[in-house]
Structure formats: C-alpha cells, structure tokens
Amino acid sequence: MLAYKLIGSCLLFSLAFNGQEYEYNYTFFTNSNMRGNYFSSKTSSKGRSSIKNINERLPINELTCHTPGNSLTLEYQNAPGGEWNAAVFYREKRGMDHFKKANYLSFWLFKESSSSQLNELPAVYLMRKDSSLTAGVFLKKLDANKWHRVSFPITLLTNTHNNKPSDFIAVVFSYQEGQESQRHVLHVDDIELLEIDVVTKTITTKPEISSASNEYARHVDITWNQITDRNIRLVKIYRSTDGNIFTPIGVQEAYINRFTDFHGKTGQKYFYSISFLDHNYKETSRSDFVPGMTTTMTDDELLTMVQQASFRYYWEAAEPISGLAKENIHGRQNMIATGASGFGIMALIVGTERKFISRKESIQRFIKILNFLEKADRFHGVYPHFLDGPTGKVEPFFGPKDNGADLVETSFLMQGLLAVRQYFRGNDPQEKIIRDKITAIWEKAEWDWFKQYPDSKFLFWHWSPDQGWIINHNLIGWNETMVTYLLAIASPTHAVSPTMYYTGWANQDSTGIQYRSGWGQTMDGSMYTNGKTYFGIKLDVGVSTGGPLFFTHYSYMGYDPHFITDRFTNYFVNNQNIAKINYRYCVENPKKFKGYGDSAWGLTASDGPFTYSADEPVTWQDRGKITPTGAISSFPYLPVESMKALKNYYYNYGEFLWGEYGFRDAFDLTRNWCSDIYMGLNQAPMTVMIENYRTGLIWKLFMQDPDIQNGLKKLNEIK
Ligand code: CA
Questions:
Q1: Less Cβ crowding at N or C end of the chain, within 10 Å?
Q2: Which CATH number fits domain 26-194: 3.20.20.70, 2.40.50.140, 3.90.220.20, 2.60.120.260?
Q3: CA 121 / ligand 1 centre spacing (Å)
C-alpha cells in the first residue's frame, strides 16, 4: 500500500476550544533537550540491515532540523533478508491528557543528498499500548535537501475512525527485505497526531521582543508579550553575532512568553529576534532585533538568579484566574495544586522583599488569591489537593475517592498564608484586607474534624463529601506532615490536643510501626526514632536512611526547625543529618550512576525517565536521577555542598537543565535524560529555603505569628 502526500490540500478549519482545559496536539517529537541520542526512542536491526544508533537510541542532529534546535536522524542500510526498526515514543507529561482528536499522523522529513538515489524509504506504523503495530504506510520518493511534510489519515493505519491519541505510544519507522545496501540518511522532525490536516487561518499578530537580559553568566532570557492569537502554534527564536546573519536556535510553546538561551559563554553579546509559526509551521516575518548580554556573577547574584527564576513559576506562569500555582509546567493549564500554591505564596513574599515585583503588585496578587480561596471548594474548611482555577471546583486528579478535603495540602497552603499575614502588617487598608481574609480562611479550617472520631490518636489525610473516610490514611511521621500537626494544635478555633503530636505524628505503637515498616522496606526508624548511624552520621529520627529530602523541606519552609525540639531530637540537627546522609550516599554512589558526586546530590521526589518517583539514599530507592531541588532547597542545612551543586547544575548542565523557571525538575546522565517539566512542589522550596539561609525571612514571619507561638507553647508544655 502506498499513501502519503505533501502539503497542499486545503480543509476548512475552525478552532474549537470548548471544554475546560486547553487542548494540545499529541506530539511524539519536537526537540530533544539532550545532545547525543534521544532517550525516548528505540532501535533494532536484523541480518545485514542496520540503523545508526547510540546505545540503541536514535541520534539527534542539530544542524538539519525543521524546528530548531534538533531533529532525529534515520541513517540506515537495507539488505535482502534484513530488517531495521526505529520507534519514537510519546513522552508522558503529568496531567497532560487533554489532547485534540487524532485524525492525521504528521511529520517532516529531510533526505540528505549524499543518500542513495534509490528510494528505499521506510514504512511508518503506530505502536499501540500493548506494543502491537498498526498497519504500515510506505513513504514515497522524496527530493533531497529540503523539508517535506508527510501527513495521512490514521484510518489508513487502523481502519477505524474511533482513534484516541493515547491509544498510541510510539511512531515506528521500519524497513524489511531491502534490495540494496546503500546508505540512506533521513532527518525526521515534528512528529505529531493532528485533528485537522491543514489549517487555513493566518497569524495577524506582529512578533516583538519586549526584553532581553544582560545580568546572567551563561544565558540570556528573552521575553515577549503574552500571546492571545490562537493561530500561533510556536514562537521561533533567532540569534546573531552581528545583527545581520540570524541562526534559529529554538522554539517555545505559545502559552509561555519567555525563552532561555543558555549559550554557555560569559561576557558575550548577541542579538535576538523572534517570529511566529502557525499550525502548519508557516512562519511570519521576524521581529526587530534586540541585544542580550552575559556577564560574570558573584555567588550572591547566583543565589538571587535561582530564587527569581523559580519565583517566576508562581508569578508569571500562575493560573490567571486564581493567581495560584499549576501542578507542573508543561501540564494542565487550568488546574491548580493547593500545596504547591502554599509554597508559591512564600516564594511571592521572597519576590516582594527582593523587589522582583513591587509591593503594590504583590498586594494585588494576594487580593486575587484570597478572593479566589474564599469562594473555592472547601470541605469542613479544608481545601482539596487540586482545584480548577476558572471555577474554583475540586478536581479529583488522583481519582474519584480524592474528591474532597486534603489536610496535608491545606497545611502547606496555611503555612504560606500565615507567613503572608505577618508580612503585610502595614496600615494600608489593602494590607489589612489581606490579613483579615487570611484570618477568616485560617479560622474556618476544622482541623479537629480530621480526627475522624473523638478519641482518635491520629489526624487523617482526606475526607470525601460523598464517601467519607474512604481513603482512611492516618498521618504518621517521619515524613512531610509535621506542620499539619503543628497547625492543628495551633488553630485558635478548631484545635486538637497537643498530645496528638506524640500519639499521632510520633506514634510508637503497632499502628505506627506497621505503617513505617511498610513504606521504608526496612525496620530502621519504624519506631519513629531511629538511632542508627549511616555513613558515619547518627540519625535520631527518620525511617530508613531518612527518606527523600522533601521531608526536610515541605514542613520547614515556614516552621523553623531550629525551634523544634521534642523528646527525641532537635529538628534542625536531624534535618541537617538527613541532608548529610543523602550527600554522603551520592558521593559514595554505590550504584555507580553517572554524574553523582559532591556537586550532584540530593535524592528526593521528582519526575523521572519512566515515572514520577520519590528517591532516597538507599540502593533500592535510587534510580539514577538527580533532582536539583534536593540539594538547592537544603541550603540552610549544607550551604557549602548546596552551593557546589548549584554551580555545577548551572555552569556545567545549564544547557539542558536551566530554563524559563530555573532548574528543570530532574536529570539522569546515565540514561541521557532530562525532564521536560518544572514542578510546583519543587521550584518554590528553592526560592524559600535559599531565603531562609540568607536572611531567615520566611522562618521569622511564620514563627512570629501569635497562633503559631501559642501552638509551640502548648507543645513545649507536654514535652
Ligand atoms: Ca525539532
């Protein structure tokens, strides 16, 4: 069967943006964020046929690409009796499941002139979830040295109109039983499933750069006005040394109005220009160009740079109706995450204090946030894990049971709000409004409801309005939930007894032991207390070797661990020891993963090459990925080691790791993988914990709150 066509047919197109969530194409490949090979690909060959590969993955090419910065290369030889295959897998991104319909498979092909003149071009298939292949379509003769668009209806592959994008996990190129043995070189780019083959609407917006930075060491940030023209598919970025010859260097999604060019040279001046690409990749004219510089930076300036970049996640990339934080970017565009928003609120305070934004802008944002929170879904005064920004309704992203309150996420939010209540203490009427609104939200939260029954030892994580305590997850430390107990004890209106700190959080009976030994895969620390020594460091409290590093961050962004001493330990010292164990483990690197060492450490929860995972410094929870927030949010505990990691991540890995909102979520050098996303839970802790290290600002604000002081007093009385 032979069926393919080049661009040309004109179908009437109407943009359909019904439904809550922004819809996007199901895209298999635009660019690889790593050089060398493409992690989400797989090659194989049989007989004398061959396909060029690097560790059984497709090579990427930066010189010949349809969208800059790169394309995938299919360099192959066919032979009688032989066969080769190359699969390009869809990279799943958390929450990205609002795809446009899949009616067409589309990609762009470039044949090098040095290739065989015979046209033994591969067939194309889609791979289903069970790894079976659809029918294939052979590609037809191509002229060399130019990009061609290939597009055909998926019905040719599946014989059905009822195709969901997520039915397919890969696009496969393959050739069997060739007649020749000559070298072919193809480049393939922009592989995607489309709802509509060819779009006829054109772009009317004029591209214009609004700013280019001149204060960073190795990168330039370029910004433009937020794009509202739905005909713009991508923004294309150009760079020039002389303002005359411009080279395309990258593309950006239309919903982000910033591009980071990490070119790696300090003291370099370049000129930048942008254009827009429509849904057929047709390009507008370029904007006027603007200069962007790099310069040397002090350690102090580096810290501010990391703080500000992560802050932007919660400022310019916030969900616009609520002003609160998305779960991840790229990801859902309307859904906001309660805990990440609490962390983001603290990052907004840091941004205000460091004058990334004016106090007036900050006040306006907080009024917007509080107006939203007043009206958003609450269950016994407690917010759900996820909310829809435009409507304020609960979004059961983790499944139908999680359609009510989430006490832990709410405690992260309240931690932020109480710090804000202390920050805006001025006489300005708007500052008073902020304080009053926060007090009302805080006092409405029924912490005592979450005991489930009157003489409960524990607080419970979730409550559903129609399914009650169906999840039935009791809060037991050591983990990220200490601040939940503190807030429940400190509540002026719905307090629980301070004794719950010991009966619940630090529970030492069979319930606690069973719980901890279940998730630690060890009995170490199952009594809450641990007492063992790891890498020469004694651990007073903590399961296993202390767990993922976020245990030492989430509860302690406001709650200053210097002032928490219970019957077992002081939590600044204990957190510091957990960080030291994590550091020592990564330096020893028992599984010999690439890159680990004294300047790349910090195992914690993040996106991963296969799935999201909470990594820990034990061999069975170490998967080879390093998460920047691990070391960088540990500045208060290990400033020297954290600074070393920060410099390594920025100066040596910035090309793939540094982007619009600071460090991307995680990377794995063994597998040549870097995350495509930033996570709401991981960016703000960097801003806030660096600030706590530098000035103690968020710690001071939270700890001086009168309700928190009262809660701490109650806790100290039972010690
Ligand atoms: Ca590309």
A1: N
A2: 2.60.120.260
A3: 21
Kindly report, residue by residue over 49-78, the tens digit of the pLDDT: 999 999 999 999 999 999 999 999 999 999
282: closest CA among 232, 328, 322, 323?
232
Find the 146 Cα to ligand 1 centroid distance in Å: 15
For 434-456, how does the pLDDT look when each residue is reduced to its tens digit (9 = 90+)? 999 999 999 999 999 999 999 99
Q: Where is 697: in which H helix or E strand?
A: helix 697-703
- How far does residue 222's CA lie from ligand 1's centre (Å)? 20
Whole-number Å distance between alpha carbons of 269 and 26: 37
Short-list 551, 558, 699, 523, CA closest to 629: 551
Tokens 């957190």, residue located = 575
String of DSSP letters for 460-517? BSEEBTTTBTSS--B--SSSS-HHHHHHHHH-SSSPPPTTHIIIIIT--SHHHHHHHH
Single-letter code of the amino acid located at 194: L
406-415, 513-522, 705-714: least confidently modelled range: 513-522
Q: For position 1, what pLDDT does the model report?
A: 30
pLDDT for 2: 33
Alpha-carbon span 173 to 161, nearest angstrom: 22
Output the pLDDT for position 20.
60
Query: Cα of 71 to ligand 1 centre, how many Å?
Result: 5
Chain-centroid distance of CA 254 in Å reads 18
- Domain 209-296 matching CATH 2.40.70.10: the answer reads no
Nearest to 187 by CA among 130, 233, 121, 129: 121
For the segment(s) 301-717, the CATH number from 3.40.190.10, 1.50.10.140, 3.40.50.300, 3.40.50.620 is 1.50.10.140
C-alpha closest to that of 615 among 673, 517, 548: 548
For residues 398 and 335, give the distance between their C-alpha atoms in angstroms, rounded to a whole number.
12
Question: Which residues lie closer than 8 Å to 56 by C-beta, 6 or more apart?
Answer: 42, 43, 44
Q: Ligand 1 centroid vs 236 CA: distance in angstroms?
A: 11
Measure the CA–CA gap between 613 and 622, rounded to whole angstroms. 10
**Which residues neighbour ligand 1 (ion) by CB within 5 Å?**
31, 65, 67, 189
Q: How many A from CA of 250 to the centre of ligand 1?
A: 8
Q: How far is the CA of 330 from the centre of ligand 1 (A)?
A: 17
Please tell me the distance between residue 68's alpha carbon and the centre of ligand 1 in angstroms.
5
pTM: 0.95
The Å distance, Cα 41 to ligand 1 centre, comes to: 15
Q: Which residues pair with 533 in a beta bridge?
A: 538
Give residue 251 CA to ligand 1 midpoint distance, Å: 8
- Residues 13-42, mean pLDDT to the nearest whole number: 79
Q: CB neighbours of 647 closer than 8 A, spacing ≥ 6?
A: 302, 599
pLDDT in tens, 529-587: 999 999 999 999 999 999 999 999 999 999 999 999 999 999 999 999 999 999 999 99
Structure token digits, residue 234: 């991508």
Say which residue the tokens 């050591």 belong to: 478
Question: Mutual orientation of helices 407-423 and 482-490 as an angle, nearest 10°?
Answer: 60
Of the candidate ranges 54-68, 90-104, 286-300, 452-466, the one whose mean pLDDT is the lowest: 90-104
Residue 374 has pLDDT above 70, yes or no: yes
Distance (Å) from CA 148 to ligand 1 centroid? 14
Domain map (residue ranges) of the chain: 26-194, 209-296, 301-717
- On the question of pLDDT at 17 being above 60, the answer is no
Distance 249 CA to ligand 1 centre (A): 10
106 C-alpha vs ligand 1 centroid, how far in Å? 14
CA angle, 523 as apex, 518 and 524 as ends, to 5°?
120
